[in-house]
Amino acid sequence: MMQTDVKAGYVSATATVFAGRTRFKGLVVTPGSAAGTVVVRDGGAGGTTLFSTATLSSGTPFSVLVPGEGVLCYTDLHVTVTGTATTAMVYYG
């Protein structure tokens, strides 16, 4: 069984959370004052979409857990968050 340290990165707009090969393990989304989206990609802003979800305005924070060893990002782990004041804590390793 492969084990790695789990790390976290905070995103409030768009960011490369980790530059390099890693595994997307999950995230916690805190909705803001306007509905939005969270998109997780491999390969930057124009890369392959691995996961996306809509967020409600002023909703309760919610978690997305990826089972097993997570989803492999070959190039990098890039996350885009839209919606006023919406944020995401991204877990990877």
Describe the structure.
The chain is an all-beta fold. 0% of the residues lie in helices and 58% in strands. The protein has strands spanning 7-11, 14-19, 22-30, 36-42, 48-55, 62-65, 71-73, 76-81, 87-92. Strands 1, 3, 6, 7 and 9 form a 5-stranded antiparallel sheet that branches. β4 (36-42) and β5 (48-55) form a beta hairpin. It is globular.
Which structural class is indicated by helix and strand composition? mainly beta
The number of distinct β-strands equals 9
Average pLDDT works out at 93
Most strands sheet: 5 strands, antiparallel
Poorly predicted ranges = none
What distance separates the N and C termini?
14 Å
Enumerate how many helices there are, as a single number. 0
Produce the secondary structure layout.
Elements: E1 7-11, E2 14-19, E3 22-30, E4 36-42, E5 48-55, E6 62-65, E7 71-73, E8 76-81, E9 87-92
Antiparallel strand pairs: 1-9, 2-8, 3-6, 3-7, 3-9, 4-5, 4-8
What does this entry show, briefly?
With 93 residues, this protein is mostly beta strands. Helices cover 0% and strands 58% of the residues. β4 and β5 form a beta hairpin.
Which key terms come to mind for this protein?
single chain, 93 residues, mainly beta, five-stranded antiparallel beta sheet, four-stranded antiparallel beta sheet, 9 strands
